[in-house]
């Protein structure tokens, strides 16, 4: 069907703008991830130092270990970098690392998508269009979208996209980073390896990225389907069937069942999962090249 519409070139329709989008997107995602991870490590070091100082002071005051344990919650709430009321119950260092990595990944994804989302809309419309619809390419699609709804037209499907990005990037980055950290900590603490020697090999990076990407793609895919439908409705005379994200979910499930939310998942695996794996490997190797044992 696709080949009949535009030959073999039709399979690469929208690839150019996708490349222009993907480069900056992953640069922003990995930069924000590294920056926020560094901030997290600084907060943990600060909390740990203050907790240890408070415990030493209690020991000098003659308190026994059992008494110190009873005061531990009060110590944590005083030194926590979290704001009240969270600081009354937990300090930052007690938050599970997987949870922290999830929110770091989700935040990085939100930052990148907020900047580049209009390109996502143009790319999607170009991919689903026929050869005769947008002969002017990206420029014609952008012009057509602006004439239809102004700037708002470039943010069609923004809400389900952001919901999907939070889940997708949060899980992908969270699972990958947590797996990487767990393996390195195990090797350093239990096998006595140095930080340099405990670093993951290329195959291990690829496997961790493959699993993390596969899981995150599966969980977030229904939101990706809904986003695509919202982005393309109204384009080049197409009818508008959905009032928003919830309406789209309900109508799809009612008409074709839950399986319709996973339409195209296999093709997505073949494209997105290997792409994410390659990106993780490229990022880690470039980081090692320029920063060494970061």
Rounded Rg? 24 Å
By CATH, the architecture is named Alpha/alpha barrel
Task: Give the CATH H-level superfamily.
Answer: Mitochondrial carrier domain
- Based on Cα principal axes, name the global outline: elongated
Structural class: mainly alpha
Bin the helical content: over 70%
Low-pLDDT parts are none
Largest sheet: none
CATH topology: Mitochondrial carrier fold
User: What distance lies between the first and last C-alpha atoms, to the nearest angstrom?
Assistant: 49 Å
Mean pLDDT: 84
What is the count of structural domains?
1
Q: What would CATH call the class?
A: Mainly Alpha
Order of helices and strands: HHHHHHHHHHH
Topology:
Elements (H helix, E strand, L loop, with lengths): L1 H5 L8 H46 L4 H6 L1 H8 L17 H32 L8 H13 L8 H33 L4 H4 L3 H31 L12 H12 L8 H27 L3
Helix pairs in contact: 2-5, 5-6, 5-7, 7-9, 9-11
Word description of this protein:
The structure is a single chain. By secondary structure, this protein is mainly α. The protein has a single domain, classed as Mitochondrial carrier fold. The chain has helices at residues 2-6, 15-60, 65-70, 72-79, 97-128, 137-149, 158-190, 195-198, 202-232, 245-256, 265-291. The radius of gyration is 24 Å and the shape is elongated.
